[in-house]
Each structure stands twice: as structure tokens, then as C-alpha cells.
Give the backbone structure.
Amino acid sequence: MFRRLPPLSALRAFEAAARHGSFKQAAQELAVTPTAISHQIRALEEHAGLALFERRTRKVVLTDPGAQLYPVLRDGFDAFAAAMERLTRRRSRAQVTISATIAFTARWLVPRVTAFRTLHPQIDLQLLASDDVVDLDTADVDIAIRYGAGPYPGFDVVPMLADRFAPVYNPMLKINSAADLVQRPLIDFQWRRRHAENPTWARWFAAAGLPEPEEPPLLRFSDESHAIQAAVAGQGVALVSLPLVKDELAAGQLIQSLGPSIPGFRHHLLTREGEKNAAVTAVACWLLSEAEALS
């Protein structure tokens, strides 16, 4: 819609003069001369075809039309100022984006966000959960937590969290020995990338010195976090990352089976080479301290 409005400079001059009751004070606020304010208001009055001020000695007084226009402009300029302040305040807050796998984000990062906010209330975290490798530059990511053997050329890399896998299950399954596992439904999840060192059921049974069941796992998921949820629900025994089920083990919702744990890969913290952003550095240090607390 086309708006037939007078120049913004004239409206600003009128609002300031009405608020101060003085062309001189309005001029000081807007950093112009009193004559310029007078010309702006005269042009506005000509545009409206109405007198907006009564000119008196050393002050000006609003006419009835001016008194009707003033609160509309005052409230409008106040709304503009408030909106700009909100935008500026939002832009001034630091935001750090972390990329990690879906399971690591859901099971390890998300439960720690509240504690991070207490430590760093001035930094906003944005979590990007994806099992695909995310490019730090094209995806506008500040920190990537990569799981694997590496290497990761082109980044500053810090080893973060060593992983171990073991069977876990709901206590109601009443498993008394590692050998009992073959009598229970096994839960599995699909590794996105084939690797000889993937912590699979075959590797675990070999480490335990037990024959691998002839029947494949009855429940197979595409994501490790879903396998964990199924184990908590008592649907079977899941071979999962122990750091990701630390809270459920502590609460007794899951029990680690008798028998060995087997190594997984290591989580690595990646940032751009020579990263100097203070907020990114603060988040990276917090992540490393949280990982160290589990070791």
C-alpha cells in the first residue's frame, strides 16, 4: 500500500518540538539549528493544511490538531526505538553453533545445556544434529564434534572423549550372566559407515569368548538413541556407548551386563585453524571440561 506521508525529518522535528515545547531544544536534540526545525514544521503544516503549533515567546504550544498528531508520532517513534534496541541487543549476544551426531546431541549435549547457560548466560548455543559430515564453513558451524579415527586436516583438533561399548538392559529382564544374553532379544543400530573397528555385536561376543547367536538382532534401529530408548523400555539388550547411558546406569534404569566392554572410537573437537572468537573458545573449553569429568 502506498502511504502519502510527509518527510520523516519533518515528523521527527515536530515530535521533538512537541515533546520539549521548544524549537531550540528540539534543534539541540536533533543536532540542527532552530531555524531548520522551524522550516521543517512549517513544511509539515503546509502539507497538512493545519497549524500545529501556536508560536509564543520562548515556547511553542500545540494546537488541537497538533495535540492529536503528537501522541501518534510519539508512540510510533518509541516503538521504532524499542524494536531497534531488541535487534541490537540480540545481535550483540554471542551465538555458537555446535555440530554433532544425532545420538551425541540428544544424549550428551542437550542434558548439559542448562548448566552451560548458568556458566555463560551471555552465549547462545545452537545445536546442529546430523549424522552427515557437516562442513564448518558452508554450514556456518563454529564447533564440530566428530566421531571416528580421523585424521581431520584443515582444523584444530582436540581429542575429547574416548568411547566404550557394552550391553545394557532393563533390570526386569533379569540377566544373571553374559551367557544369558543369547536368550534375550538383542537390539542393534546401523552404523552409517562400515569400518572394521565398529563396536558391533560380533566383536563383543568375540571379546566375551561366546558364540555369536545364529539369529540376527530382533530389533534394529537407524539411530543409537532409539536403541537406547528401546533398552530402557525393556525391549531387549542393546550394545551402546556407555557415556551416552551414564545417567540411566546411575539411576538404575539400565544395568551394564556382565562381561567385557569393547572400545569404540573417540570424539574429537574441531574448530577452524587459528580460531580467535572468545565465545567459541569458551564453549570449546566447557565441552572439554565436561568430557574430562567423565574420564
About this structure: The chain has three domains: 8-91, 94-161+266-294, 162-264. The radius of gyration is 33 Å. The CA atoms of residues 161 and 292 lie 7 Å apart. The chain is about 40% helix and 25% strand.
